[in-house]
Amino acid sequence: MHRKQPTAPVPVYRLMFSSAFTFSFPPEPWALEAYAKLVETVAPGSPWMAAGLAVDVLPLIPKIVELGGHVRVGLEDAPFQSSRRNVELVEAAVKAIQKAGSEPATAAEIRTTLAAYKMPAAHAA
Predict the structure, then answer these.
(1) Which residues have a Cβ under 8 Å from the Cβ of 37 and sit 6 or more positions away?
(2) Structural domain boundaries of the chain?
């Protein structure tokens, strides 16, 4: 859709995982790699994030960081009836990101980064 509207902001591609539903890949490193390859093929250089429904994406964080992606965590993504509170999920994600050698971005940093993305000319047509 973005190719049809090249003046629109570059989308952040959301790579969805699930352990409870069949609409997506399971939260496995091979699945993350496949999704990341797909994004790089159809929209090179575009930002992407991993998220899910009824799934724990925390074990994928080292691979997400390695591949240059972002991550969304919270109660919407967590397994149903998770005993963790939202803040606990976010704190665990921050620790996992730091352990993987990166730092979580602030909201201001994300806005600045997204404003700088431009769709490559080859895909704008």
Answers:
(1) none
(2) 9-80
